[in-house]
Design a protein that fits this description.
The structure is a homodimer. The first copy, chain A, has about 450 residues and is of the alpha+beta class. Chain A is built from 17 helices and 17 strands. At the A-B interface, helix 1, strand 1, strand 2, strand 3 and helix 4 of A face helix 1, strand 1, strand 2, strand 3 and helix 4 of B.
Amino acid sequence: MLKPSTLSGFMELLPAPQIAFNKMLDSVRAVFESFGAVPLDTPVMERAEILLAKAGGETEKQIYAFEKGDTKLALRFDLTVPLAKYVALHAGQLRFPFKRYHIGKVYRGERAQKGRFREFYQCDIDVVGVDTLSLGYDAEIVAVACKAVAALGLGDFVVNISNRKIVSGLLEMAEISDAARPEVMHALDKMPKVGLDETRSWLGEIGLNPRQIAMLAETMARRGAGPAVLDELARLPGQTALFRTGVEELTRVVGLAGSMGVPAANLAVNLGIVRGLDYYTGTVYETFATAAPEFGSIMSGGRYDDLAGFYTTQKLPGVGISLGLTRLFDLMTNAGLVKADAATSARLTVIPMDPADPRICAAAAALSGQVRQAGIAVDVLWDEGKSFKSRLGSAAKTGVPFVAIIGADEAGDGTASVKNMATGEQARVPLSAVRGAIA
Amino acid sequence: MLKPSTLSGFMELLPAPQIAFNKMLDSVRAVFESFGAVPLDTPVMERAEILLAKAGGETEKQIYAFEKGDTKLALRFDLTVPLAKYVALHAGQLRFPFKRYHIGKVYRGERAQKGRFREFYQCDIDVVGVDTLSLGYDAEIVAVACKAVAALGLGDFVVNISNRKIVSGLLEMAEISDAARPEVMHALDKMPKVGLDETRSWLGEIGLNPRQIAMLAETMARRGAGPAVLDELARLPGQTALFRTGVEELTRVVGLAGSMGVPAANLAVNLGIVRGLDYYTGTVYETFATAAPEFGSIMSGGRYDDLAGFYTTQKLPGVGISLGLTRLFDLMTNAGLVKADAATSARLTVIPMDPADPRICAAAAALSGQVRQAGIAVDVLWDEGKSFKSRLGSAAKTGVPFVAIIGADEAGDGTASVKNMATGEQARVPLSAVRGAIA
């Protein structure tokens, strides 16, 4: 006999939390579809060289790679590389801008530690254009993030938005040397974590002078409702073309998002959002739950210039955002924010009092068929070994809203006793009236 | 630059067929949930020894196995072994009978050939009891299969049902030696494929006498509407207890399925359904599309005595059925049975005539936000590079039912020109009336 176990770093849920998790997945999917995104579902496995084209360093070490026959294979570690491959491979058959969502599992052989998962769901939405892509889509991504996060039950939240051209422009305006730029960007990227003071001294150690430090750190620390911050930025002296473009783009995106109905309370311009060094080239997003900043960014993404440069010469700019649901669900569970109170998808549980009585069973079968036909989910507790009382208790524990009991009397006159589990009320109704009684 | 490609044996769909595929997955899921089954979502990866406990021979060769660090890992090759592990591991926290569904990808490194997939979706539903499990669940599985297959758009179909105790009883009644049984069972298992005559001569080669051959081959060839065949079986002379139990169980299951509303035309008793040699111990199911018998069984399963004997001493009998959707979708596509006519999930596509005009864009943004708020999916073609006409053509190609056009006139008076793409009719309505116009 083997001791059953589940690999560490892999989430495996009991029914009630699984139902809650799936509700979250479904609501994210519904939001993505409400923006007209088409679903994508690529293989979990790809040729290793396809996946490794972009990876490197830490990512490469984390990849699950192996051989089958003489093919080197690997499991996807994100949904962006598969998107790049898909678009490059099928470009001739796609309509551009290509707006797709993809909800699926990805794999990273992280060192096992609390809160780190080796298999986790990503929920991605991206819009990819050929050569150009309108900023209208950058605004849509703000609206997507607002609707998706609002549906997760996290309470208040803010989508923080910036534009990489603003920080790049600032580096020009502060006359940072090309050699120092990566390190300065890195320091600015960490500012939301370490704070303004530490960033100031870090920039000093890199060798920036007080004027440069003041200009960068203080500008980058700006955040707040869109119009106020954008006005300040527009008035900053000595602007380069890049900086101006960044401010103009950000202004346009914030304005359109507002027109789309994004509440002002859910969107903040925050120049501290930099998001790493290489990939993003324009708009960048991070989303924080007001009551749980320790969760980190819940939904992040941005605008990139060139999705699939490894696979095609076509220039494919895109904008997108991603939600890591497994980690978030785990954090929410630990914080008591997941309401996992239903252990069944059924609205009605039918209990034949004596499951050995053929007439009672036939009536229970008929009732379950009729109610399902009306589109309502029904469970039946057929088990003969357990008492009626223990089965009723078992049904109650699942949180099912209604129970229909069929005993000899009910089977005799074609009725069922329907119990409302919330109120305890019970009424005997004809079988054909049960679906109405539980509607 | 790398040439992008997808591994052979891995399905990767374009948007329109992907939407059609997801509709099929969703309808199967809705059917499973309508029976009160809870969702299960186990890791794609398990410790190799967990997965290999049951596998052997051909299955073991097909498994994707590899090492990460010093752990031997493997990808699941079905959803039954993960279910067994899950139930054994979490038994103390589950409610029994445990009725779960699982829709997910499984992996088999099959030799690449047309119609064979290395990654494919299985859609499984099983009910697992402790020590005993009522035949009521065997009947529910018939009802599940009927509803699920009916939703797939395959036209007429028949769920074929039998009971392994009948064939085992027949072997007793025909006095087949223990040594010959496996080979005889194998021959009977193949009878639906090779036909009655060939099975007769095969049984002769095994060494059966004419009386044994007549008894087995002719009884096993029986099939038809439940009551008629069951009556014949009940009248067969020389019945053993095992045979009688099999006929009684089958009679009860067919009767309850009828009470549940399963149409007589969709269910046939077919003693030729044997389903392999080892696993199943009672009811067995196979489902065939009337117009496409060459698809083979679409949804198959049965009753087993002991789900998790490798992982626990608890006796866990179960009954379930499985649909391999990837292969079926491929067969249906090749047969022209998949209606993949929508390349968008949107009901409305908004086209701002001049996407450089801020007033037009603001109106398009506001319209899209309002209509989404009403729960309707909206796409917007923001792209500045393309003419209005080419964008309208692009929208038409997706099969979207409505297009809302916003030009300078519309932006000026707060209206949109709404075009019904099926009829070509176009009407100018206030923005707030658009959601009503496309309902």
